[in-house]
């Protein structure tokens, strides 16, 4: 059994994930396990569950439990999927809300309490209309 197969089983990785390389440095007491996925692999869209192609990747690194007193790092290419062409979903609604919150942040500048920011955010995002009292009653 190769070292890569051993670590794939030890980490409980399923297809399409594979361990591509293990870099062990006894002087630095460090073990780096590099994880990748098979070319052409498809990943589920978090919203619809439909399998989608990989748009691009980002290399990420996490610290794992120590391996016999050696610092262990997992390094993986994390896929980013492009679900629009599969099920025509976009993040436009989220971007619109983010724009409204940024506007609220600019308008709430100078307020010291979070409650004031939240009130302005609800006012802007919720399109609330605030009524003024007609006149004093006394």
TrEMBL record:
InterPro entries: Transposase_DDE
Domain spans labelled Transposase IS204/IS1001/IS1096/IS1165 DDE: 71-120
Protein name as annotated: Transposase
The species this protein was found in: Haloferula luteola
């Amino acid at each position: 059994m190769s070292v890569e197969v051993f670590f794939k089983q030890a980490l409980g990785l399923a297809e399409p994930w594979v361990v591509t390389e293990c870099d062990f440095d006894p002087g630095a007491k460090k073990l780096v396990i590099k994880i990748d996925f098979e070319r052409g692999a498809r990943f589920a869209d978090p919203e619809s569950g439909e399998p989608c192609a990989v748009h691009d990747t980002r290399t990420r690194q996490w610290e794992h439990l120590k391996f016999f007193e050696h610092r262990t790092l997992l390094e993986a290419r994390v896929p980013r999927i492009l679900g629009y062409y599969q099920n025509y979903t976009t993040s436009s609604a989220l971007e619109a809300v983010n724009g409204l919150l940024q506007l609220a942040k600019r308008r709430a500048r100078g307020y010291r309490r979070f409650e004031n920011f939240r009130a302005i955010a609800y006012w802007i995002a919720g399109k609330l209309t605030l009524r003024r009292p007609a006149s004093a009653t006394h």
